[in-house]
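Researcher: Go.
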Amino acid sequence: MELFEIRNIDGKQMALFNLKERRECFHAKWCYYSKAVAFLKVVSEYCNKAAIQGATNIEIARTLFGTQQPPQIRIIKTVAFLMANYVDEYLLKSIKWCNAKRFKSKIDYLGIDFEQFAYETENIIYNKNLPDPYWTSGHRDRLHTFDIMFAMKSLFYIESVKKIEDIWNSDLPTGAIMYMRLYIDDLLKQFIPYQNLSNAGGATVAKTGVRRGFLKQEINKRLQGLPSVVNDEGEILVYAYEWCCGAVHYGSIPIDCLTDWMIMTISPIRKIFTDDTQMRADFQTYVSTKYAREGLVVQW
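Model: Structure:
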């Protein structure tokens, strides 16, 4: 195995990371395509063996973003599922001999994330009780101000870059997450298309977060087994929005497989309520209760 080797996934032996070969592969000036593909196949095989198979989108969302804390094993198996799909459905299908170097940043960071993921998997799922590792590399979980500035310029002045692989690809995905947040904002306006809120005197009152507050209430009803007008896609959309806010406000850098899953999951969403008429009635009830002192009325 080119980058590092995981032997005997049944748990009988310790995982073996061949860091020298991994470094040689990442910095190889020749045959990068074949070495990168070999590494991706290692990641795919390992993650598919460790993953919880057949998980639905709502199960994934609740495991990673729900209010109830699931067992650590379930979280790891869910991440393995996402990482395997990301490698199989995106990287292995997209990377070609002619464009392999353009994926170097993604493959580098996948190697870092996978090293840490495999260590946790070996310890928690296969009960290896490995000693604390000495990490030879790391994946920052926050962007520095300089990174944000550089990524901003890279995106805006992308035409001036001769080759796309010269851009700091590792810092650009956060821009996609910002766009995702704006996209969800617009979707929520389409799904709950009220014009404004007015008080008892008929004056328009501006309130932020009203749509998300209503959806969170409906999600809580669902989780408690109570009747709710929101469907699975609506619940996932709220989780996705909250996740985007964390990335945007704190400059966090999530693992690529999670961003990939978010994009692929929310893109097809076209309906988030089981009954739009009932939604409007419940939304008015929510507003009347939440802003009782102001006596707010929803204007559709």
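Model: The chain is about 55% helix and 5% strand.
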